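Researcher: Here's the sequence for the chain we discussed earlier.
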Amino acid sequence: MTGFNRLALTLGLGFLYAPIAVLVVYSFNDSRLVTVWGGFSTRWYGVLLNDGPLLASALVSLKVACLSAAIAATLGTLAAFALDRHGRFTGRGTFTGLLYAPMVMPEVITGLSLLLLFVGVDMERGTLTIVIAHATFGIGFVAVVVGARLNGLDRSLEEAAADLGAGPLRVFFTVTLPLLAPSLAAGFLLAFTLSLDDLVIASFVSGPGATTLPMRLYSQVRLGVNPEINAASTLLVAAISLVVLGASWLSARRGRTSTV
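Model: Thanks. This is the structure I predict for it:
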């Protein structure tokens, strides 16, 4: 790597992560003014733990993320199986395009489309609609992760189990599913992270009593930034970082397993 490339990489990473580092540092600021350093303190984390509405929003986000990730992992896995195991079938191109469209479509368009759908079917907006929206958004990502593992799966193991008398369901649960477990977990964590971090789509499809944590933070930031918001954002960044690291570890494990 040349000196210019190192400089470009350093500047790029600094541009991306320096604001996050500043946010984390100032979450431990004792002063109420976010731009004035008043000494090291964890007081704002204590204030955060006593903020009922913010904690309620965090609970809603966790519930939505878990449910939507579970749905996305299930449907995304089935979609990956349909594309990998059934070869060419009528409507395959359309199915593939519809599956991956939410991944490349602007979130504003996705949120608006889902809003019009829920209004059209006269569905009351709330936690359920956010779960459906986030699951729709995450299915394609899970399908990509699981599909990549299916492409490299050794089919001879499944064929050997079938030759020994195992039925299709038993082959799936005793052979195929354990081999797919790392990719399933990675897909679940990826869908979980996308749901936990989403603001735009949730803003379109949410309703009364269904305010997620990013929505709550955004509404408070519009009135002014305070150290409590820095503390909440720091915890959110830490949670997402742990999930991303977990997904990366599972993906790396999947890669090592596939080479054995």
